[in-house]
Amino acid sequence: DYIIDVREQPTARAQAIIDSLQPDALEVNFMSMIAFPKNEGTKLVQVRGMDGNFPFYGSMDTQPASAASSYQSLGGALVDATLLLQFNIQPGDSIKVGAVTLPIVGALKSIPGSTAISTTVAPPVVIPHRFIEATELLQFGSRREYQFFYKAADTLDLLRFEDRLDPMLDAENADLDTHTSTSRRLGRRYENVSRFLNLVAFIALLLGCIGVASSVHIYIKEKLPSIAVLKCMGASRKQSFLIFLIQIAGIGLMGGLLGAMIGVALQALFPYLLEAFLPFAVEVSISAQPIVIGIFLGLFMSVLFALLPLLNTWYVSPLQVLRVDEKATEGPKEARAIVFAILLIFLFLCSYWLLADVLYALSFVAGTLITFSILAGIALLSMKVLRRYFPKKWGFTSRQSLLNLFRPNNQTVVLVVAIGLGTFLISTLYFTKDILLAKTDVGNSSANANMIVLDVQRDQRDAVVQRIQSKDLPIVDNIPLVTMRMHRLKGRLVNELRQDSTRQVRGWLLNHEFRTTYRDTLIASETLIAGSFATQAPPNGPVPISISDNLAMDADLALGDTVVFDVQGVLMETVVGSVRKVDWAQLQLNFSLVFPEGVLEQAPQFNVITTAVPTEAASADLQRDLVATFPNVTVLDLRQVYTLIEDILSKVSWIINFMAFFSILTGIIVLIGSVRTSKYQRIKESVLLRTLGATNRQILQIAALEYVFLGLLGSLVGIVLALVSSLCLALFVFEVPFVPSAIPFLVFLPGITFLVVAIGLSNIRSVLRSSPLEVLRREG
Fold first, then answer.
1. Fewer CB atoms inside 10 Å of the end CB: C or N, the chain?
2. HSE, side-chain direction, 13 A CA sphere, residue 459
3. From CA 391, how far away is CA 411, in angstroms rounded?
4. Which of 231, 167, 141 is CA-nearest to residue 453?
5. Where does the pLDDT of residue 653 fall: very low under 50, low under 70, confident under 90, or very high at 90 and above?
């Protein structure tokens, strides 16, 4: 129910608090190399020294099953089952953990609290806690974690308990984690992916709105003569309005039902998509709530976004039956303004529901309105330019196709806005997908270090270097690490800052154990953004240090500010001499704090040594040699890490690409619908041209050129606007750099244009196959 964890031996005060709460189980865990004496195999594992009846909920899955409860009394080890298979080891063989050799009493298949991802990097090895000291693995600088597990009474208010106890433990460099706080923290880790999926949902919603609005607009425009006939026959405004409103509501209801059924079917795929990420089986259950919401959205969106064009039916004049050029009045501006306001409120509420942030919701709605206005403005400007600078000397087909763009009752604005908005949303989705996946390329170059030797003690450093070089392997890095804590920050004691609720300093800094280094140069992952990098410590006065930009922000530090560090009991005064921007995504050793040379050389320290190993056999040979001679060091083969990360990221990429493709497909369907709804007007125009003597080839050329212009204009403007919106998303929402892809320009632009032309030409194919009289009779 809650855990108290400490990254070092608990202080007397922390231990008193821990003991007073009477822990039900405890664990000390750390990374280490182990060896199998049977075949001299070695592997980086997570050693977990357990004591007590852990776990409280669920159970360890072992083979044999009895090993989960008997390993403590038998004094044996539980070893990850995959690890046993990998090294051909069986229960009954032995495992060497540091200076201790233990029998393997069972294969560990799963343990509550562990995931497939973490156990792939460092498989767990569970041993009785009483053997930890005898392993001799916990030395100076060793990373370890002490965890004390508690089972709480049902009446305990964990939130109030956390509020009261957490500050007391923070003061002693200990942390309290409840199952509620862990859930909140886990959720924050996936904020960007969550934002992307919400963006997918929001874009799918907008695409649906565009499809409904553009389709109904053109549909009602075609039905205005029919409405005029109804009014001549005595139908009232209300009746004619309700006829089409009910018709559109019925279509929306059927669409919602169909969409809900497709959604339920797709949900069956999710267990297969998620099985590699979750340590438990995903069971699919059908809930009525999302189905009802989906059907309601289909009905409500259809009616709501049809209201604006449906207002035209209210003001249709019966004279339209007699006068061809009689235009329907658009009605009072107040009515249109009210409908428009309702649309904006609906968009805002939906975006807020999906994004859970007022500012983001307002930004998306405002961005959509600006995009709509820009597209409509460019369409109107293009019509004006064509009318003014019309190429009168061009051929008949070219002139006729351009005339169609600004003739009376043209559809240029509607189609450019529909095509442009669809392309804009599709391209924004694609650019956003690239933003999320920009960091998925893990560079594994043979020239870089691919093996790290950790926790090398000072008296072992030269011997480890010599052992590596004796195998004709290079020493890429030999980095000293010194541990320290902040004692005084800008003149204020850290203990005083812990009690100050108005402080500007992030809480994690006040308890953090910094692992720093000293050197006289910057490395490839660092860029100096302020001050000058000190290479040598001055003979007297504060030591100039270099800090990372994120540390400067969290600690509220600037150039010239002083910080006093506690270096293993010795206080050292420093001053911020420079600020660096660090690329933490690079898989190498990066530091928040860097000291100059000439000040930390005599401080208690240990080293991290890196080398480049060409083959798997050479890696295994070096690991066996180092673990046998120096059992306390930890060897990390980065090639295994590269493989694991690339495997994980490929699965994440697949899911993101799947969701992006799904919404892109939705956008294409909307585009098809928008262009398809202009079919009937195009048929009548083509029939008139054929009656006047135009050939099929001329009709095709006229239609093709018109749709080429509409497709190019709409899609080009949409992609350019998507570039701007994606840049804003990258900077203000995802907070990552933005490098645009050329795919939308190379694929979407010609692809959408071709799609628009293909659909447009399909609209008039019945004209080309039939006589004009036959088409007129059929369409009439």
1. C
2. 4
3. 21
4. 141
5. low
